[in-house]
Amino acid sequence: MRSTMAIVAALVWGLLGAAGPVAAETTVTVRDVAGREVTLVTPVKRILLGEGRQFLALALLHPDPESLLAAWSGDMRRQDKVLYQQYLAKFPGLGRVPLVSTGSPDTFSVEQALAAAPEVAILSGGFGPSQRSDDVVRKLESAGVPVVFIDFVEQPLRNTVPSIRLLGQLLGREARAEEFIGFYQSHMDRITNRLAAAKPALPNVLMHAHAGHQDCCNSPGRATIGAFVDVAGGHNIATDVLKRPVGHLSREYVISRNPDVYVGTGGMHLEALGGLVMGPGVDAARSRRLLASVVSKPGLAGLSAVRNGRVHGIWHLFNNMPLNVLAVEAMAKWFHPELFADVDPDASLRELNERFLPVPMQGTFWVSVDDVGARSR
Fold first, then answer.
1. Is residue 220 located within the same domain as residue 168?
2. CATH number of the domain to which 59 belongs
3. What band does 23 get if pLDDT is binned at 50, 70 and 90?
4. For 161-173, what is each residue's pLDDT tens digit?
5. How far is CA 355 from its chain centroid?
6. Looking at the chain, which terminus has fewer C-beta neighbours within 10 angstroms, N or C?
7. b/e for 17-39, b at 16 or more Cβ within 10 A?
8. CA count, 13 A, side-chain hemisphere, 294
9. Residue 128 forms part of a structural domain
10. Under the phi-then-psi rule, with left for phi > 0, alpha for psi from -120 to 50, and beta for the rest, what region is 319?
11. Average pLDDT of the segment spanning 325-333
12. Is the CB of residue 152 less than 8 Å from the CB of residue 320?
């Protein structure tokens, strides 16, 4: 009898061991990027993701991020189809995860969200409910669903690291979060510390958002992707006149400022609009050709940046994901090529693919009109 019990015990122990260590559930109080203290049980196993694109942030930290989703927004499926298909191939269950919106705050359904029985709602603004969505937050919390906010878009330089650290707490993946933060912070510090020591003259930069979609020029100030211009060592000419985070610069203003560097943002969302197409699965030659076409238009063709070949494109989605350090590295090289001659965003992307991303980023994420500046992975 004792022998039989010992065998059973050994089998049970072996099965538990094979499954790996299981994190004990703990009630914790966390502080989100909105400064709210939220008490919940971790590690969370059923997540309502208010913005589908933030699945990539989960994927950085968790080996099976698909298993965590109780429901999510449809923005990644609808607007970033190539990226979605790449992740769907790796995580087939994504296609069965219930949708709570088509990818905009006004289509978000609290009823569908509650029907999915999430343990936590992770909201981030952008294409889903934001910190200003008081009614959504109240209804979720009244139904017993804790709400936490992360942010990679409104104030990315301030909130990327605390957002990743918060996700690490929620998922019980603190060590993995700190590993990514170490990578992110070391690469960001290399740029900021070198600029602080060298104090180079700052080139005037025109950042043309959604380049080619409309006449010149929709531009961000120091919000969203525009925040990366300052930290990369440039002066964003939009910040001198815009009263809002994003706005329109007249052709006359752009010509009068005659920027030293042009940076257009592009993505797959511009494919049907005649704009700068960039992103997963896109060939660099195609993006380079479209970029050259954009700056050949009236109001841009005569700019100093265009005449001197300092014309570049950046993937617009860097404005809403924790991989934004890649955009900072690319811009730093464009703005100060000699100072950052040893900085290689291609190498940084390879390291991210090898160490952190379950689906390697492959495509064109930064590009220049000249062959030397073109980058594709």
1. no
2. 3.40.50.1980
3. low
4. 999 999 999 999 9
5. 17
6. N
7. eeeeeeeeeeeeebebbbeeebe
8. 33
9. yes
10. alpha
11. 98
12. yes
Can the peptide bond before residue 21 be classed as cis, meaning omega within 30 degrees of 0? no
DSSP codes, 179-195: HHHHHHHHHHHHHHHHH
For residue 128, the 8-state DSSP code is: S
Question: How high is the pLDDT of residue 92?
Answer: 96
Spatial distance between the Cα atoms of 218 and 207, rounded to a whole number of angstroms: 8
User: What token pair was written down for 214?
Assistant: 């409309």
The answer to whether 55 touches 87, Cβ cutoff 8 Å, is: yes
For 121-143, what is each residue's pLDDT tens digit? 999 876 666 677 678 889 999 99
Nearest by Cα to 112 from 94, 81, 150, 139? 139
Q: How many residues does the chain have?
A: 377
Instruction: Quote the CA–CA distance of 79 and 99 in Å, as a whole number.
Output: 14
Q: What gap in Å lies between CA 219 and CA 195, rounded to an integer? A: 24
β pairing state of 311-315 and 261-266: parallel
Same domain, 145 and 249: no
Q: Are residues 266 and 156 in the same domain?
A: no
**For residue 117, pLDDT beyond 70:** yes
Q: Is the pLDDT of residue 377 over 70?
A: no
Question: What are the backbone dihedrals phi and psi of residue 273, each rounded to the nearest 5 degrees, phi first?
Answer: -115, 5
How far is residue 145's CA from residue 142's CA, in Å, rounded to a whole number?
Answer: 7
Q: Checking DSSP bridges between strand 218-220 and strand 204-208, what pairing results, if any? A: unpaired
Number of domains in the chain: 2
What is the per-residue pLDDT across 305-327, written as a single tens digit (0 to 9) for each?
999 999 999 999 998 899 999 99
How far apart, in whole angstroms, are the C-alpha atoms of residue 218 and residue 70? 37
In DSSP terms, 122 is beta-bridged to 49, 148
**Are 161 and 257 members of one domain?**
no
Work out the mean pLDDT of the chain and round it to a whole number: 89
Are 88 and 218 found together in one domain? no
Q: What is the DSSP letter of 11?
A: H
Instruction: Determine phi and psi for 17, rounding to 5 degrees.
Output: -65, -40
Q: Domain span at residue 226?
A: 202-368
Q: What is the pLDDT of residue 271?
A: 85
> What average pLDDT does the segment 62-78 reach?
93
